[in-house]
Fold:
Amino acid sequence: MRRTIIAGNWKLNKTTDEAVRFALELKQRVGSVTHCDVIVAPAFVALGEVYRAVKGTSIRVAGQNLFWEASGAYTGEISAPMLRSVGCDHVIVGHSERRQYFGESDETVNKRIKAALQHGLTPIFCVGETLEERESNRTFDVLTRQVVAGLEGIPAGRVAGIVVAYEPVWAIGTGRTATREQAQEAHAFLRALLAEQRGDHVAASCRILYGGSVKPGNVDGLMAQPDIDGALVGGASLDAASFARIVNYGPHASLAG
Ligand code: PGA
Structure:
């Protein structure tokens, strides 16, 4: 059984004070859930304090990115050991906003995943097609390229522990969610690709999250799909009640507070 992950990506939102206040509210609402892993990804500067605020609860803390070198003359970058030192155990890699606005490529994604694994961080490896790619029937080609290049040189045993996030670019921050059928189709494709690339065992243990306008109103249908193992939530993770309802998806909904 693959354990569900509900992760909130706070992106460029919340000062440290706001982040800590929000984390304390989340702690009240979802700090003791046991049916899934809850992860929040605040801005780098808030990581340490958010970690301290949620320490000892079910909530884990993730970086939104990392640099592949551990240290050195790389002004403005943050390394895996630095993320570890402030309490992170996960890190988002290759988010489409990084690919779109900050020159992230499949090759740099691969370096970041390797660095994360080397230092004991679980990468949340984001892939997904643009609207143009979907409309020209290139979705599966794009996913194949991103997965093959992103995981290049990483042995099967390591890939099994990676979290993949399928985030169609056209659904991120647009309010336009993939239908549950579209999401399931892409997730099943990704799982089959992982099986082909690294074996059935890896494909069966790898968790594949869906991301792109996940909301309280659509999470239950998405989570009911067999190959959707969780959600990576942007906008709706910035509201405590919404995020709590997403954490308490489907059969857990009566627990939402
Ligand atoms: P969204 O963002 O939920 O606001 O669409 C998802 C993401 O970027 O991970």
Notes: Residues 9, 167, 172-173, 211-214, 232-236 surround 2-phosphoglycolic acid (CB under 6 Å). The chain has a mean pLDDT of 96. The chain has twelve helices and eight strands. The first strand starts at residue 5 and ends at 9.
